[in-house]
Structures are given as structure tokens and as C-alpha cells.
Amino acid sequence: MLTEIKQEAFEKELKENENVVLDFYSTECPPCEALAPKFDSLAELYGKDIRFLKIFRQGNRELAEKLGVMSSPTLLFFKNGKQVGETLRGGIHRSQIMRNLDTMLPEDRIKEIHQKIKPITTETEVVVLGAGPGGMAAAIYLAQAKVDTILVDPALPGGQVSTTHQVSNYPGFVDPQPGFMLAHYMAEQVKAAGANLKVAVEVNKVDLANKQVLIDGHHTIRAKKIVISTGASPRYLNVEGEKEYYGKGISYCATCDAKYFHDKEVVIIGGGNTAVEESEFISKFASKITMVQQLPHLTANRAAQERAMADPKINVLLAHEPRGFYREGDKMKVKVEDLRTGKINELLTDGVFVFVGMKPNLDMIHDKLDKDAWGYIKADDEMRTSIPGVYAVGDVISKKYRQITTAVADGTIASIALAKELN
Questions:
Q1: What is the pTM of this model?
Q2: In order of start, what are the domains of the chain with their CATH numbers?
């Protein structure tokens, strides 16, 4: 049901098949590896109605460029020779593919295919929810201790590390490491240790009491223990224009978007470690940076503050708070209030980066866990939570410091305690 082709055969395939889905893949590509089992299983379901094709992107560059394919994996859908539906890239979910496949078929046939999807159940000893550094460290230790472990994540491995420009203080690396490479090394170590990775999947339901996790709508994983390592996400300001211009002038990721502001001016909201350290990276591209901090002082570590203050591109507005974001031509306008005088000032800039803290990623978990005042999970010194058999590690737990190294330490502690309990 699944055929690999070269670019010379592409036009012939379109002429001979009414419905076609084409996967541009690469080797040594973690998102491609995550997509492959989904693509294979869907080819079995839809293969009689839709032609499933794979093509090696680097070996077929001419076709890739013609179709606007710049990354792997990329899924394209064709009906009667014309491209239809969405272009899917990166960490692609099974439901995204099905949604596009279904638009190519009549309703009665869609119903028949969906009825063939049977629930499946996998038994394991431990499910680790979240493939950030804490979750991956736990999975490595557990797998090396011969504990059957499945690591689940709705995204790709790495968590926040994968979008961090450089990591300069992770032990074992003399030179600073790009965050995405450090995440890659960790994921490869997880696989080498023998843990089972199920990433870029949809987590539909988590039942901590019964130690069950439902993924992709039909696959239930039952475990004896669960480790929660879902991390934390950027905290939003919830001011006018923030959601409207998210991705259209407002960013929460310097690594992702700083390169688009070469020789341009940007505003950074925040004054903690992340804001100050990311300003150093953004300064490599931007011509001017205005940092808006609500407190009368920066809260980043002293070394980071000194580096930022020594950068002539960086200017700091202390005791100011954003009140709204607006578009003015091709510029962003930021309204900020001087908290000392109440005066509203306007900053005209090319883009805005927001770094004002994090919140725990617990939307998928509805069981009652003991949490602190900020919503982070309380865990004891062996990472046990208030629910028996459930552990929590990394940025999702209540702790003083949240770093890659502290998350890895949490994962190590939990896995050792958990393995002993299982034995």
C-alpha cells in the first residue's frame, strides 16, 4: 500500500491515480521517524482509495523545490492532479493526516474506513509523559534498569531545549551546544537504552488513578507507574492584541524568530533570566532592543545583566508594563504604562518578544494532585506525588530552580526510586 518513487515518476502517478498523498522524507530526521509508523498504518486503512507515496527529499531536489518543499517531513495531498488540503510539516499528528485524507473521499467510504479502526491496548511497566530532559533522563535510567518504558509526547523530543539557541552550561560539553542538538543527543540515548518513544502523538486522555493513557484516539497504554514530565510553557500577558498578533509580530521564541529581525528594532517584554539572556542572542540580529520590565530592577543573574548592560544595542525601561499591541503599517506599536507616573507611552518597533515566565503544562491531566499556589505539582524528595504510583519531574513540579540540569536530576531520582519500588 506504500510505494517509494523518484521524481521522474511523479507526474505519471498523478495521472494514474485520482487521490495521492506524498511524503517527502529525509534520513537522520527525528520528525520523519515519528511520522513513519503513522503513515504506514494509514496506508493500510486508506490504501485502496488513496495512493500513498514516499520520496527522498535530498535525492529529488528538483521536484521538492518545484512543489515548495523546504523541510522534512512534508506531506502533500493531490486530487485529480491538483494539490488540495493542508501542507503538513514537522511533528505531524495522525488526526491531521486523517482530516486531509477524509476530504478526498465520499462520506460513506470515510465511515467504512473509520469503522475499521480498532482500539488497541499496550501493557508496560512505566509510562513517561513528556519527552523533555527530565522525562528523557528518567526513560534512560529506567530502560537501562530493564524496566519496560514508553515515553509519550504530543510534540517532538526536547521540550524547551529544542528551541533554545545555545546551551553553554550543560556538563560534558566544552563548547556551547545548539539546543536542538542537545535534545537530539538525549533522544538518541533514550532509543539506544531501549525505551519506546511515541512522540508527535495526540494525548487524548490521562487517567493517573488507573495508570492509563489514551493516544491517537484508539491506543490505550496501561502501566504500573506513571512519570509526569510535561514541563512548562510561556506565560502570556493577556493584553489587547497579544493573541491577534501572535506569530504576526509577537514571538515567544528567540531561536525561532530572531533571524527575521536582521538590522531591525525589537521590543522585549520581561527582565528575568530568559529575557536578558535571549536579548543577547537577539542582539546578534537586531539593530536596537528595548527591554520593558515591570519591576524597578532586572531579576536576571548578575553576569547576564552585566553583559546586557554592556551591549550598546540594549536599552531598558524599568517600572513599565505593556498595555496593548497594535499594528501600524508594517510596524508593531506597543503601549506601555510608566508604573511610577501612570503615563502611557508608545513604542514603535519591528517586532516583539515576550519572556515573562512559565506555567505548568497540565491541561491534559484532570486527576486531583497536590499543587502549590502557582499550579505546579508538589513532589517529595523521591519525586512521588500525592497519587500513589505517580511521580513528577522537571519544570512541572514545585521547585526553586528550573534548569536542564535540575530536570535531568529529577528524572534520575524518580527512575531510581521507581525501579526499586517495582522490584
A1: 0.81
A2: 2-115 (3.40.30.10), 121-233+358-422 (3.50.50.60), 250-354 (3.50.50.60)
